[in-house]
Amino acid sequence: MREVLEGSQAVAEAARLARVKVVSAYPITPQTHIVEELAKFCSDGSLDGKFICVESEHSAMASVIGAQSGGVRSFTASSSHGLALMHEMLHWASAARLPIVMAEVNRALGPGWNLWVDQTDSLAQRDTGWIQLYCADGQEAFDTTILAYRLAEIVNLPVMVVLDAFFLSHTYEPVDIPTQAEVDKYLPPYEPKFLMDTKDAYTLNTVAPPNVYMEMRRSIQMAMEAAPEVYEKIEDEFYEQFGRRYGLAEEYRCEDADTVLVMAGTAASTARVAIDNLREKGEKVGLLRIRMFRPFPVNALRKSLEKAKKVAVLDRNCSFGAGGIFAQELKAALYGSGPNPPKLYSYITGLGGRDVTVDTIGTMYAMTRDREEPASESLWLGLNEEMLKS
Amino acid sequence: MKNDLYSGIEYMNSGHVGCPGCGGTIAMKLALRALGEKTVLVIPASCWAIMSGNYPQSSLKVPVFNTGFATTAAAASGLRAALDLRGDTETTVVGWAGDGGTFDIGFQALSAAAERGEDFIYVCYDNEAYMNTGVQRSSSTPWGARTMTTPGTNWKRTEKKNIVEIMAAHRIPYAATASIAYPEDLERKIKKAMSIRNGLRFIHIFSSCPTGWGMAPGNSVKVARMAVQSRAFPLYEVEDGLKYTINEAGEKPVKDYLRSQSRFRHLSDEDIGVIQERLDIEYRRLVRRTLAEN
Does pTM top 0.95 for this prediction? Predict the structure, then answer.
């Protein structure tokens, strides 16, 4: 059934239809609507589950880890400072090999306090062993949450479904919501691989000395390496049943593009308009929107970019001292990809919710087109240079 | 008193890797005898996180879930919810943390779980410092004690946090102190905590530490008994946060207890007098509480 829903509501609907049993969360703008909605579902009986009102995000993640280890599907959501506070337990969830799914709304970290979109919060968690999937609209946020449970429970790793603050979390769009029976057909009941059971007692997450620790870590990496292929397979099944697919990364007008713009999140919607305008002027430009960031789908990205001469990456984030994070990762992925890899141009813009407009994308393209060689560092677009002088 | 403490069924095997004379292992052994096989333990970073043994071994016969240092009560809440939703309301969930994991880093999560009325038993086995990391002070370390972070003349000059009163102030259905030197009392309190389901039950077990306190391993139980008999650690319980009952406390001078451990060796007779006076005042307060509500 098509409904007009906020991005946050679309995620909450997906968690409900995934029949999550335990939801544990702490409020933080702009994630709050997701968990408010789930609290309502637990209260009105439309979700047969328990909502735990914890006192912090650190406890939110700890309690869903406890719940998932007790053998039930669980869910949480967070953002920005909340995600940063969870950091320790993010490692715990993945190393305990628990298929937890969380929604993460990209918001800037303070100080200065800022509620608006910025990808640095989730990207700073890239080494925690969580699969990360970036969404660009409400339907995709719904679908990705369902896909996330399927994927997590096959590879035994947690999955973060990432949404832009406000531009996605608070924007109402038509979303096709399948019936419970349809979702049940796609997502079977959760069967834990191991759990706390008094009839079959184990010590979970115990001391792992040097003689076993490396193998444990290798098995996480192996699960990560398998994830892109597993994802494509389960997305094929999703497509067969629901008629929608997104890919590890989504190409737009890339077929004959000399220059490909690369980004993740809602800025890609703006970029599509900018690309249409540029195409009308005869510019051979396309868009590659990265969906899966962890594991970084190197082979798929190399293939998508194999014909491009130039690649321009828009990063709504910054790793201070290094630059745009998607650009760094993509540069590493393209190194050694063939005799003539594309030149990579790195741009940082749109931090802390600053608008990324069609003009911003146009400027980024023009700068890339007009420079034979990329700068060694990330270039910042849309700065007020006067402010930086003081 | 009916007593099945010595029925011969043990849920802790030999082969743990605790220090000789470890009070924490005695606490676990006694508690598990009372808890029985339908028990799951949630253990954060602590001596007990390593004492059960390295992968793939365990000295415990019940399932153990190791969790992050600050998260015992949060993880136990999630686990309890999962068991209930799977239809298993019979199994007892027990959070089992040291004093650092309870008084300090885990306190926020513990207070929140108590306020939410979570259905599990939380045991703090208290050895009065961070022993697993090599004896650093916690907020459970008593006034006068030397630790590696309160060394030399800078010995601890703040009082031990009164965790049972703090937990009782949450108006949880049951809070109690217990000691490894009083197994029957400890067993009774665990059983009582198991019989109550309408909220968090908190049991604070005094667990002596020969390594951290500076005493012979063979004196562990004896020194724990001296703590009770000198009012350094009276045994009492609090029902619904209000009804106080004293179970065991003596009137022996605290000097003998303090002189039995090298962590207090530097204290002058005057310092010991200060401790004695404070313990007497605290004990009179405790007595007044029992009178107020009975």
Answer: yes
